[in-house]
Specification:
The complex is a heterodimer of chains A (117) and B (112). Chain A has 117 residues and is an all-beta fold. Chain A is built from no helices and eleven strands. In chain A, a hairpin with a 5-residue loop joins strand 4 and strand 5. In chain B, 36% of the residues are buried. Classes of the chains: A mainly beta (117), B mainly beta (112).
């Protein structure tokens, strides 16, 4: 069964460093998302991406964050200058459908645990 | 309260018993989905129910949706120790792009 994959599974970085989290969505999916979950808290939406551009972003997704689909398979989240409060599990998700269809089953990757020291 | 509030926050049962978890939400929705998360792991998609559906089954899972009460329930029948996990509901709204808004989750513990 096709699945979303993410690398690395765990990333440790120093405050102020840049990190890139990578995702490979399910191949026939068109809509891509990043979410994060701070330990013990809810899963929070960060950004959605369609047709090579951001379709929606949350207030969390400020200028230090960016997303890119550098090729036909990868989808990346870059955090330019990490802060302690960026420590969280970051989930990538993809879905086949979007606003034009009535369903929106989103499939999540296993996550990248980011630890900022 | 926020969109997607589950109750109970924690549920402890014995193997073989049924587990019922509830989710309430505030705004109108397009779909409601349930996910499972084992401790520190990824989110596993369980089931999606559309706003025009009232009940859906998948194996030992039964989901109901009551849009008049803005609530949903997830029933796991004949629970197993392997069902131990956190369960989240997630909604998407019927306007705009389909970001999911997650609830706070129910931690289910199934003891052998």
């Amino acid at each position: 069964e096709p699945e979303v994959t993410q690398t690395p599974s765990h990333q440790v970085t120093q405050m102020g460093q840049e990190v890139i989290l990578r995702c490979v969505p399910i191949s026939n999916h068109l809509y891509f998302y990043w979410y994060r979950q701070i330990l013990g808290q809810k899963v929070e939406f960060l950004v959605s991406f369609y047709n090579n551009e951001i379709s929606e972003k949350s207030e969390i997704f400020d200028d230090q964050f960016s997303v890119e689909r550098p090729d036909g398979s990868n989808f990346t989240l870059k955090i330019r200058s990490t802060k302690l409060e960026d420590s969280a599990m970051y989930f990538c998700a993809s879905s086949e459908a979007g606003v034009s269809l009535s369903y929106n089953e989103q499939f999540f990757g296993p996550g990248t645990r980011l630890t900022v020291l | 309260s926020q969109q997607g509030e589950e109750d109970p926050q924690a549920l402890s049962i014995q193997e073989g018993e049924n587990a019922t978890m509830n989710c309430s939400y505030k705004t109108s929705i397009n779909n409601l989905q349930w996910y499972r998360q084992n401790s520190g792991r990824g989110l596993v998609h369980l089931i999606l129910i559309r706003s025009n559906e009232r009940e859906k089954h998948s194996g030992r899972l039964r989901v109901t949706l009551d849009t008049s009460k803005k609530s949903s329930s997830l029933l796991i029948t004949a629970s197993r120790a392997a069902d131990t996990a956190s369960y989240f509901c997630a909604t998407d709204r019927n306007t705009g792009f389909q970001k999911l808004v997650f609830g706070t989750g129910t931690r289910l513990l199934v003891s052998p």
